[in-house]
Amino acid sequence: MHKIIISTLLITSFTFGEGSYSFLGTQTSYLNYNTTSSPSLGLKYGIQKGMWRSSFNLDHAKNGNNKLTSLIFQTDKGILKQSMEKSLFKPHVGFSFGILQHKENVSDKGYGIGLNTGVSYLLNGAFDLDLSYRYLSTTKMNKLNTLNSLTLSLHYFY
Question: What pTM, to 2 d.p., does this model score?
């Protein structure tokens, strides 16, 4: 796990510096984990430089007494740059890892690591909409093995 964190920090360190800009976002997701499906709400903070984007995502989902909270670090890179250069749609792929807490009568904490993909639509110079899919495999958790999410985000760039 330490190698993954160090590699991620090295890769994302290229995004911090000249020509980078920050963004704030809000998101809603549809989560599927074990036998539970639930909507969630979340907040994002990130930095983008060129085709690279890194963000922290805080999500909370509740379905009855079943609760899931996550803090996910995500890095992705724009793809198909040449063919999508003049398009308002910008596809991306990347990876994610973070901390998860699942509560259903008993609290269960652990880590998740996985892949993500999606497409952003540029509304104007300050806003974009992002539709993404994320798959996480968990470790150190008793009742939660995988987490799938379909997320719609609105980002404000500043």
Answer: 0.84
